[in-house]
Each structure stands twice: as structure tokens, then as C-alpha cells.
Write a structure and sequence with these properties.
The protein is of the alpha+beta class. It has helices at 10-19, 48-58, 79-89, 107-113, and strands at residues 2-4, 23-25, 38-42, 63-66, 71-75. It is globular, with a radius of gyration of 16 Å.
Length: 118
């Protein structure tokens, strides 16, 4: 479920119709009835331009990464954390894991397997 606090209805159409997510509109994040695992900021003019001023303000508390041209993601865990846990659960050595990424939110995952190039 994607919970949205939209300033404009355009983002509702993007998330529901283009991305295909189920959505619920809330007025405030405090109305979300379950744990929040990620917050994404939709930056119409591109996330790269807002990453430094907005991201630097929150990097001490969250992993912050550009996750596609208009998206800036804030998470407590990153794909590297997920890859470590998955490989442990599946009992696969990280030396035997390959990762492929296409954006800055993939860097931690790529570093864990030994290669990080964007």
C-alpha cells in the first residue's frame, strides 16, 4: 500500500495509474496505520537538484538516495542491508552473489558484492 500526502492530484495518478500501486490518501503521515518503511519525495524538476539540500538535512537519521530521476528516497535500511539478510537466510555466500543496479539507491547493494559503478 502506498500512502500519499499529495500537494497535487498529479502524483496520485502517477502512483496509481502509471506505477500500479494501491494507494490511500492521508492528510498527515501520522494517519498511516502501519509502520512506514520508506518515504519518497517526488521532485518534478529532478531529485538530483534537491538531494544535497534536503538529503543532507536528514542523512544522520535515514539512508537518502536518488531513486530515479524524479524520486528521492528516505529509508532506515537500504538494498545492501536487504542483500546481506537475504544471502544469510538463503545461506549463499556474498562471494556467490551478483547484483545489478541502475540508480544511486543501488550503491550499497553493489558495494556489498564488490563492485559499485554508476
Amino acid at each position: 500500500m502506498s500512502y500519499l500526502c499529495p500537494k497535487e492530484m498529479e502524483i496520485v495518478r502517477v502512483i496509481r495509474d502509471f506505477t500500479g500501486n494501491q494507494i490511500t490518501i492521508v492528510r498527515f503521515p501520522e494517519e498511516v496505520p502501519e509502520p512506514i518503511v520508506k518515504i519518497s519525495a517526488f521532485c518534478r524538476d529532478g531529485a538530483a537538484g534537491i538531494d544535497k539540500p534536503l538529503g543532507d538535512r536528514w542523512r544522520d537519521f535515514f539512508n537518502v538516495a536518488v531513486a530515479g530521476e524524479p524520486w528521492l528516497d528516505f529509508t532506515l535500511a537500504d538494498k545492501g542491508t536487504a542483500l546481506r539478510q537475504l544471502s544469510r537466510i538463503l545461506q549463499i555466500s556474498l562471494e556467490n552473489v551478483m547484483a545489478i543496479g541502475d540508480n544511486y539507491n543501488d550503491v550499497a547493494m553493489l558495494e556489498i558484492v564488490g563492485i559499485a559503478k554508476l
